[in-house]
Design brief:
globular
C-alpha cells in the first residue's frame, strides 16, 4: 500500500489544526503515494503497529490508496539521487561538548535536512522542516529523525544513516526515567 493524503489530511497539516498525535502527523507528512508500509515502519515498534496506524488513518479519512495513474510514476527512481555524492558536514556534531538539548538536536536535524534533501526531494525537505518547527519533545524529535534516517539509508546507505543516528543520540537529552 502506498497511501496518499486526502484533503482532510492536508487541512490537519495546516497551521492551527492539531487533532492528531505527532506520530500520526508524521505519517501524514510521509504519505505521498511513493512510500510503502516498509518506509513507515521505523516510526513504530514493529510492522503490525505501522499497518494498524495507517489503516486507522485510512478509516478516519486522512489517507487513501493512490490512484492507479500515479503508481507508474511513483515507481521510477530519482536519477539525481544515485548520481550525486552524499556529503554531510558533521564537524559541529563531532566536536560538540555542550549540554544535550532539543534545540541543539533540532538545529542538527535542520542541517541534515538542508544538506541531504533540499535538492533531491524539496517536498520531503519542506515537510521535515515543518515537522521540526512543531516538534516539542524528545519523542517527536526521534520520530522526525527516524523518518529522515530512513530516507538517508536509502540514498546514502546504512553506514551513513547509522553514523548520523549516533550523532543524534549524543545531542538528544536522555529519556526521562519513570519509576
Amino acid at each position: 500500500m502506498f497511501p496518499t493524503k486526502t484533503d482532510k489530511a492536508r487541512d490537519e497539516l495546516q497551521g492551527g489544526q492539531r487533532t492528531l498525535s505527532q506520530r500520526e502527523r508524521a505519517l501524514l507528512l510521509m504519505a505521498d503515494g511513493r512510500r510503502s508500509l516498509t518506509d513507515f515502519s521505523p516510526l513504530f515498534a514493529n510492522r503490525i503497529e505501522a499497518e494498524q496506524a495507517i489503516l486507522a488513518l485510512v478509516q478516519r479519512g486522512y489517507l487513501q490508496a493512490p490512484q492507479a495513474a500515479a503508481a507508474p510514476a511513483a515507481a521510477q527512481p530519482a536519477p539525481i539521487a544515485a548520481a550525486e555524492p552524499i556529503q554531510v558536514a558533521t564537524t559541529s556534531a563531532d566536536t560538540f561538548d555542550g549540554k544535550r538539548s532539543l534545540a541543539t538536536t533540532r538545529m542538527f536535524l535542520f542541517d541534515i535536512c538542508e544538506r541531504m534533501f533540499v535538492r533531491r526531494d524539496p517536498k520531503f525537505a519542506l515537510q521535515m522542516r515543518d515537522a521540526l518547527r512543531e516538534a516539542r519533545d524528545r519523542q517527536a524529535m526521534l520520530t522526525i529523525a527516524a523518518l529522515m534516517l530512513s530516507e538517508i539509508e536509502k540514498t546514502a546507505g546504512p553506514e551513513r544513516a547509522e553514523s548520523l543516528r549516533e550523532r543524534i543520540d549524543k545531542l538528544l537529552p536522555p529519556a526521562e526515567i519513570i519509576h
